[in-house]
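To whoever picks this up:

The nightly regression suite flagged Glycosyltransferase 2-like domain-containing protein as changed. Nothing in the input moved, so I suspect the structure step. Input below, exactly as stored in the fixture:
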Amino acid sequence: MSQSVNDVSILIPAYKPEWFAQSLDSCLAQTAKVREILVSDDCPTDEIQRILASRLSDPRIRYIRNTPSLGLAANYLQLAREAKGRWFKFFDDDDIMHPDCVERLMQHADDSVSLVIGGCRLLHEDGSITEKREPLPAFTGGTTYFLNTYPRVPLTLFSRMLIRGDVLHDLLTEQIPARMISLDELVGLRACLKGGVAYEPTLVCDHRNYPGGYSRTVDTEVLLADAAYVTNPHECALRMGLAPRPVLDKWHATMVRKYARGVITKYLQVQDHAGLFTFLARLRERFGLLAIGSAASPRLIARFFKNLFR
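Regenerated output under the current build:
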């Protein structure tokens, strides 16, 4: 049976003031009632607070000012710690929530579901727009999604997700890297371990897919810490006995290779060959022979040599 839509906390980890007003107003304009809109302000200036000032009369808004700044992942986790709703709707400070976003996602929320994903539009810096709609069924069992679907159709972008709060409550007791990039994917994978995944094919939000964001970093320490999104769910699934160990180890190997190849591509895009070799050496220290398999993609090797002779 569907849950009450007013048991939703909209959670905004605020940092960039440029589009924050538009983002917040799209949350305030939802057709469904929500329990609260919680803003955790990590901005180094007072711009977020200034934008909020004219809207704080709305009783749904709660505001937290972080001094000093927490960092991206830690800011998300603070929001989860403070939220009062049963369902969490994280929303990035530069995205736009369609008016019926919460209403559409909550149509799928029941006790068998731990995660709902909606369709979204990607707004590119050149003005072009791409619709992101995956060929997913309305409902997929959590174990099936974790083992079989996720390697093909990753769970990404918090702004298009609705997450059952107990998924985050479990993570709050664990050591999550404060500068983690792929927290959305970690949360999505952990959600699969607690229930099914529902899919809403209509467009529920717009996501600004601009270059230069934090997710494009080539900081080796950040990227290695970010690999927790692969190792954490694997370890948790082993403890739960979700599947036989060989099956889970095969999943882990696939995901390490997939993640590493994505990182290698980042280094090649910026032609940082020294950083790439440092990353690969550190990756080998952590994952052993899996790291060699990650780098041995013919496509990446060809791209590397093409970069050398530019």
